[in-house]
Amino acid sequence: MLSIWLNVVVQGILTGLLYGLMALGLSAIFGVVRLVNFAHGEFAVVAMYAAFVLFRAWGVDPLVAMLPIALVFFVVGFALQRTLINSFVGRPDHEQFILLVGLAIVLVNAVLIVFGPDAQPANLPYAFDSYMIGPLLIDKVRVYAAVAALAVCAALFGFFRFTRTGTAIRACADNLVGAAVIGLDVRRLYAITFGIGLACVGAAGSLMVTIADAVPSLGPAYTLLAFTIVIIGGLGSMAGALVAGLLIGVSEALAGFLIAPSMKSMFSFALLIAVLVLRPQGLLGKKPA
Amino acid sequence: MISLWRDMNRRGQVTVALAFVLLLFAPVAATRYVLSVLTLILYFVYVGQAWNLMMGYAGQLSLGHALYVGLGGYVSAALWVHFGIGPWLGVFPAVGIAAAFGAAIGWLGFRFGIEGVYFALLTIAFAEFTRIGFDHIGFVGGAGGLFIPYEQSRLGEWWNLRGSQLFFYYLAFCLAVLAVLLTALLARSRLGYQWLAIREDETAARALGIDVFWAKMKAVLISSSMTAIGGVFYAFYYNSLFPAQLFDMSRSIELILGPIVGGLGTVFGPVVGAFILTPVGELLISLTEKAGINAPGAKAIFFGLILMTIIYLVPTGVWPWLSQRLGFTRRRS
To answer: Which residue of B has its CA nearest to A105?
Structure first.
């Protein structure tokens, strides 16, 4: 009995890492550019389909496809921020919201037209392989995806911690006026941040295709999921996004196992409401000054 | 209300009066299809206005108004289907329950200082939570839906909202006109000015001695109650209710597009917004059909592009821009 529980929890943790990576991208955009990216989940779905096509057409493993897809997403994000979105920075929430909802509608329906409404399984050759560790039976794909997600997260942490650009971006998030005063090119840094945010979601989407079928309707669901995770973890806290991702992954897995799979996201929303009420700054967020 | 009328110049007054008369007599000339589109437009004017009170005037961003539509619709429909309690009576518990949810969200949000995007997320979370919950309530049909049966014998019972398309058109017309009048009234009331003060600067409003918490609570209560009545209308107009349709986030979005595109915090913004977006949506359906594009997403893509264009070009909404262009408002000196 215990081993079943353990299996469910481990599976939740592995899935949660992917959620965390996706939310990390949103957290970067939300925390630095102060922009509500309501098209986040839709971008994840586009990445899922990109990885799906690369695998089906040329047999490129999603774990490998993740890199070019993330690169393309970075360029797209950089260009988007530079052209369309930059003039919306600092504008009221609802105006940003409409712009990005418009973008989300375009993205998800473009996918719908090209691929149709049905779920598309990637059918990886090793989809049903698994590792046996004592009483644990762990899907190989989940382990691969989780390790890849962890690697991307580590690279991102390193970038923000140790590189000049990363430090400059954190400076923008901490004190925008100060950053502008010392001569940082805020517009360029914002574009890079948006690019990084989309690269995260591109990588997460590619990895997601290994454990879930690609469906257009996942878009809004993932957007909500990413926002839930970011708020629970704490705005601007990258570690918080990862921790909250794990928490949501485990709570979804447990709820799906104990009650009903269709009710699993109900628990995520209950968790969100509880966090908003008890600790609005998020689990690892800083107290507002 | 009177001051709203006085603020407009002759040209504005004539235009508004003309629009009112045209809508009043529209059924004379309109085909059944046009009438159904007009009914839909007026429904969106009504619920859009309800949302506008909360966001446009009090400045509280709710992205979960589908919750109140759903609750209003489900409560009144369940009372009718299971107990034979007509909607004229059922509307009271429907409004009561929706207002109770609104109060809970408002209390949680305003008491704990949850603002802006965070508050919006709280409203989404409540709506989604309720949607999934209703999927599992067998009493109202769960995910399979709740249906109000079609009964030939009851067809004329307009007091039970069992009427024709014409009846529902005038019902929507009354609702929309009342909502516009209520907004005009509230906008010039003490409460309305308190809302504006809070929207512009909450700290300053508090310093002036405004009870910010209660003013915001009143906004949520009025808005959720009004929206729930819209839900009752929806339930008896369409006769079928699915949690995935009523509570879905896309419904909340659909409801708020009109006021944002038309112009937030204005009396006529939600009206103009609904009269732009709904016909555009209908037009896109028929155009894509005519062009032979048999893709279900084509219409939505155009719609998304139109939204982005409008918010890019006229971010404060079409109505303020339009009324200035056409010289509807008297310039204040």
So the answer is: B304
